[in-house]
């Protein structure tokens, strides 16, 4: 499928024009696709209806070969509780971080790790799934990760964030452009996955995406009113607890935390619930539609608006730096259209039942139809 850029982004693509600090601060999350109609031809994105209504019938072989070992056994139990979601001192007010509100959460399970390239490869091998970035033929890549050869072929950028370049051939198998691969980063988070791609993986694994409230509750790891999963100090005792940007963005990442670009999903100490890389490394999709308006009333297991145009993502990425993208805090949030993908966007799954229950259910079905 030939690359097709939505009208909104086409208007943003300009030759490297300078951006203000305000513009940069608003565009740190990642570039976005916007679904548009193709005139009489209907929707450009043919996969939308199938992914959106979550009806996808896998073959018997695909179900038999589901990952009954490994990822499903790497879930942490998240106990029921009440926590303070959001903050009354938002660092980025336009993102809807306020107000703080009391939220009750039912017990559930959360992946200890971001979904890795190795796990996503199992999914693709057994189901034959093709990601949206592969179908579109391109995806967004941070300029600093691209080879000079690839950069010479590109003459467009996102005006508000010129470090984001549309790259033909970039996808989960080629995360830094068509001349790269994942052979030496199988334990790194899978990237260039859209919200719909993440939903399909979770369904194949017998899981689901976490709600924003579940994600934030899990991120806090049992701590109340703290900036990060480990507390308020970014570098307790001078030690790094997350993979973010050190140096001057976007020109120089010094890699003081040991990594430029992504880190293995097992890197850095886990939080109080045994979860790794809840902030930094890669943005993570959640189930919720995006809104910046929240009630201060106490709620029980909220799921966000019933509809919208963008989905919520949480946690920030290796590209986050306080000088322009202070979104590696548990209360921080951002959004993308469900079909968007980029070189800093991944996910992890949640589940309502124990991994053992999921395994038994999977073993008892040779074929599955997803209805939701």
UniProtKB/TrEMBL annotation:
Oxidase that catalyzes the conversion of cysteine to 3-oxoalanine on target proteins, using molecular oxygen and an unidentified reducing agent. 3-oxoalanine modification, which is also named formylglycine (fGly), occurs in the maturation of arylsulfatases and some alkaline phosphatases that use the hydrated form of 3-oxoalanine as a catalytic nucleophile. Known substrates include GALNS, ARSA, STS and ARSE. GO terms for biological process: post-translational protein modification. Monomer, homodimer and heterodimer with SUMF2. It is found in: Endoplasmic reticulum lumen. The keyword Disulfide bond applies. Pathway: Protein modification; sulfatase oxidation. It comes from Microcaecilia unicolor. Belongs to the sulfatase-modifying factor family. Keywords: Calcium, Copper, Disulfide bond, Endoplasmic reticulum, Glycoprotein, Metal-binding, Oxidoreductase, Signal. This is Formylglycine-generating enzyme. InterPro entries: CTDL_fold (IPR016187), Sulfatase_Mod_Factor_Kinase (IPR051043), SUMF_dom (IPR005532), SUMF_sf (IPR042095). Residues 1-21 form the signal peptide. Pfam families: FGE-sulfatase.
